[in-house]
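User: For my dataset I need records formatted as: sequence, then structure tokens, nothing else. Please produce one.
Assistant:
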Amino acid sequence: LRIKIACQYMKSLLPCVCDKTDNATVFENAVHFIAFMKETVGSDYDMVR
């Protein structure tokens, strides 16, 4: 249940992800998006060090 809720939340946050996207693809896109944002913004805004 927690994974389903997390996937629904990530689908609402990630660009270019629709409701019919499977969970594995959502998680994969989340990893790529986080890596892209970290590369773009830098590590100055990391909350966990």
